[in-house]
């Protein structure tokens, strides 16, 4: 392969990488998750950083003790954060591939 062909191929690959990076960035902007507790007493929404953005108690929450209600909130938040992690990985997979994602995991 001559230098001109090599450079053209290199620039093409860089362009593809930039397009995948823009696509991942766009997808990451909208990552969030909304999850309801198993008993339907609580619905939470977390943002892409795992921060709690919305907490809704339904009428079913009135029937729960405070410790059970707290457990329902914590469980819903944990599951929503797990969903955010999955959505984030899906957004990054085209850019990093499975091997790159594996290196990011703790």
Q: Could you say which structural class the secondary elements and strand pairing correspond to?
A: alpha+beta
| Helix content bin | 55-70%
How many β strands by DSSP?
Answer: 3
- Assign an overall shape: rod-shaped
Mean pLDDT: 92
Alpha-carbon distance between the two ends: 41 Å
The major pleated sheet works out as: 3 strands, antiparallel
What's the number of helices? 2
> What percent strand?
15-25%
Helices and strands, in order, run as: HEEEH
Strand order of the largest sheet: 1-2-3
> What is the radius of gyration computed over CA atoms, rounded to a whole number of angstroms?
21 Å
Are there runs of 5+ residues with pLDDT below 50, and where?
Answer: none
Describe this structure in words.
- The chain has helices spanning 3-29, 66-104; strands at 32-36, 42-47, 52-57.
- Strands 1-2-3 form a 3-stranded antiparallel beta sheet.
- The protein is rod-shaped.
- With 106 residues, the protein is an alpha+beta fold.
- Helix 1 (3-29) runs antiparallel to helix 2.
- The chain is built from 2 helices and 3 strands.
- The model has no long low-confidence stretch (mean pLDDT 92).
